[in-house]
Design goal:
By secondary structure, the chain is an alpha/beta fold. The chain folds into 3 domains: 51 residues, no CATH class; 196 residues, no CATH class; 112 residues, no CATH class. 51% of the residues lie in helices and 6% in strands. The strands form 2 sheets. Strands 3-4-6-5 form a 4-stranded mixed β-sheet. Strand 1 and strand 2 form a beta hairpin.
C-alpha cells in the first residue's frame, strides 16, 4: 500500500487494512468539507488527531514592514494637496525634504488644485485605500474597496487624479530611487517589533492561529494617527494590516536634515492584532450581545452613545481590556493597571471586565485559548447587564 498504507498500519497495526483505508478516505472527504485538507501535502490535517491526539500547535504570526508603492503615492499626493492649509504637518526629516524638492512644482498641477479646492478632504487614513489597488501606475482597483477611505469625491475621480499626478511627476522614479532608504527604515522597524516580542506575547495570550500574518505599512508623511486596515475579503483572511504614522511625540527639534527615528509603540501593535483574534466573539455571540448593547453605550460620565455605535464600542472595549492584560503579563501588574486606568476614563465597563478576565489568566490550564473562555465572558456580560439595568 506504500507510504499511506504504512501510515494507516502505524495508526493501529491490528486493524483490518481495508477498514482503515475506508476510514482514511472518509477523513479526506470530511477534511475537504470542513476546510482541514492540506492540498499542498495532499493529506487531511485531521489525521494528526489520530496519531497524536491533538491538533498541530499554534504558531505566532509572521511580520512584514513595508513602505508600499501604492500607499506612498496616495500619501504624497494627499499631503502636498493639504499641507499648506492644515496645522499638523509632516514631521520634518530628510525624507520630507526630498519629497518637497522632487515635487517642487506640485502646486501648479491640475490634480493638486482640484483636490485642494474640494468642499471636504479625506482623513489621514486615506493612504490605506492603496491596499486595494494594483501595484503600479496607473493604479486600478484590484479588490472591492471597503470602508470610507475616499469621502472627498467619487473614488474613481480621486484615483484618476492620483494617477495623473504620479504620471506627470514620474512618481515611480522617485519611489525606486528611495528603495535603499525605504529598506533601511522598514528593517529598523521590523527589528524593533521583533525584539520587543509583542507579537509573540499577544499570540500567547490568545493562544490561537486566528492571526497568521501582521503587515505594518509605514506612512512617513502622516503626523496625524494610526489605523487598522480592515477587510472582510477572504484574500486578507487571518491577516492584520496596520498603517503606522510617523508621529512627532517627543520634544526634539526636527529639521529637514533630521534622520528618521520611528518608534513603534507595543500597545498599538497588540491593539490592532487583538481585533483580529477577537473577531470570532462578535461573530459567535452577535444576537446575545445585541440584547446587552445598553451596557456598551454608557460612558463613565453617564452619557449615552448612539445605538448604532454599540458593536464598535463593544469591540474596542474588549480589545483594550485584553491589551491591558497583555502588557500586565509582559511588564508586570503595574503596567497593566496603568493601561486599564487610561481606558477606564473612556469605557465604563473597562475596569469590571478587566477584573473578570483575571480569572482567565489564573486558569490557563482550563482555557488554553481565549476563544474557550467566550462562554464565561458572555455570561459575565449577561450578569452585568442584569445588575445594571434590571431596575430600568
Amino acid at each position: 500500500m506504500g507510504r499511506r498504507g504504512n501510515l494507516i498500519r502505524r495508526i493501529h497495526p491490528n486493524t483490518d487494512p481495508f477498514i482503515l483505508l475506508f476510514l482514511y478516505f472518509s477523513l479526506i472527504i470530511t477534511s475537504m468539507r470542513i476546510g482541514l485538507y492540506d492540498y499542498e501535502k495532499k493529506s487531511p490535517m485531521a489525521i494528526s488527531l489520530f496519531r497524536f491526539g491533538n491538533p498541530s500547535p499554534a504558531q505566532p504570526p509572521t511580520l512584514a514592514a513595508k513602505i508600499d508603492n501604492r500607499l506612498e503615492a496616495i500619501s504624497i499626493f494627499y499631503i502636498l494637496s493639504i499641507t499648506d492649509t492644515v496645522d499638523v504637518k509632516p514631521v520634518p526629516s530628510i525624507y520630507y525634504r526630498d519629497v518637497k524638492r522632487y515635487f517642487r512644482e506640485f502646486e501648479n498641477h491640475p490634480a493638486i488644485r482640484w483636490y485642494r479646492n474640494l468642499d471636504r478632504w479625506d482623513g489621514y487614513s486615506v493612504a490605506s485605500y492603496g491596499t486595494f489597488l494594483s501595484c503600479h501606475v496607473p493604479f486600478r482597483l484590484r479588490y472591492p474597496a471597503e470602508n470610507d477611505y475616499i469621502r472627498s469625491s467619487a473614488p474613481d475621480r480621486f484615483l484618476d487624479s492620483v494617477n495623473s499626478f504620479c504620471r506627470d511627476f514620474r512618481y515611480e522614479s522617485f519611489y525606486r530611487a528611495h528603495q535603499p532608504f525605504y529598506k533601511k527604515v522598514t528593517q529598523a522597524i521590523k527589528d524593533s517589533v521583533e525584539q520587543s516580542h509583542i507579537i509573540e506575547d499577544t499570540w500567547r495570550f490568545f493562544g490561537s492561529n486566528d492571526l497568521r500574518s501582521l503587515t505594518v505599512y509605514i506612512d512617513l508623511l502622516n503626523n496625524h494617527g494610526n489605523n487598522a486596515i480592515v477587510s472582510q475579503n477572504p484574500v486578507f483572511k487571518d491577516q492584520c494590516r496596520i498603517q503606522l504614522a510617523y508621529l512627532d511625540i517627543d520634544s526634539l527639534q526636527r529639521t529637514d536634515a533630521s534622520e528618521i527615528h520611528f518608534t513603534v509603540h507595543e500597545n498599538i501593535v497588540a491593539h490592532e492584532a487583538s481585533h483580529v483574534y477577537l473577531k470570532g466573539f462578535m461573530e459567535t455571540y452577535k444576537s446575545q450581545l445585541d440584547s446587552l448593547k445598553e451596557i456598551f453605550l454608557e460612558t463613565p460620565d453617564l452619557k449615552k452613545l448612539k445605538e448604532e455605535e454599540w458593536e464598535n464600542e463593544m469591540d474596542e472595549l474588549l480589545v483594550r481590556v485584553c491589551v491591558a492584560h497583555i502588557l500586565g503579563v509582559k511588564y508586570g501588574e503595574a503596567a497593566g493597571e496603568k493601561e486599564i486606568n487610561v481606558q477606564s476614563s473612556n469605557y465604563k465597563l473597562a475596569r469590571p471586565l478587566h477584573e473578570f478576565v483575571k480569572d482567565f489568566l489564573s486558569h490557563r490550564d482550563r482555557y488554553p485559548t481565549f476563544r474557550q473562555y467566550y462562554p464565561k465572558l458572555i455570561e459575565f456580560l449577561r450578569q452585568y447587564h442584569i445588575t445594571e439595568h434590571s431596575s430600568n
